[in-house]
Amino acid sequence: MRIGSPDFEKKGPTSLYTAVSAILKDLSLDAPQSLQVPADRMKLMSPYSLVYRTVKQHAGPIGGPVREGPVLDAYIYKMT
Asked: Where are the alpha helices (H) located in the chain, listed in sequence order?
């Protein structure tokens, strides 16, 4: 799981990992199965990172097809 956030640069990765862990824990309370994500499977990044920009570039328009390119598999969600 990769998460791009503008807060990465403002608040730093440690506070963001703590926040994401708390959110996943809250979601697990209502889920039929636990939503635990091992720390080594979670990567937080800046929206200025190359990975984030590449995925965004190849994502295409909302609801449209993914453009050809190096992004093989991705789920893209906009959080507000």
From this structure: 7-11, 13-30, 50-59
Taking only the tens of pLDDT, the chain with its 80 residues reads: 778 888 888 888 888 888 888 887 777 777 677 667 777 778 888 888 888 888 777 776 666 665 666 555 666 666 65
pTM: 0.58
Cβ contacts of 15 within 8 Å, gap of 6 or more:
7
Other C-beta atoms closer than 10 Å to the C-beta of 4 total 19
- From CA 21, how far away is CA 68, in angstroms rounded? 33
Residue 76 to residue 74: CA distance in whole angstroms: 6
User: For the chain, which residues make up each domain, given as ranges?
Assistant: 2-59
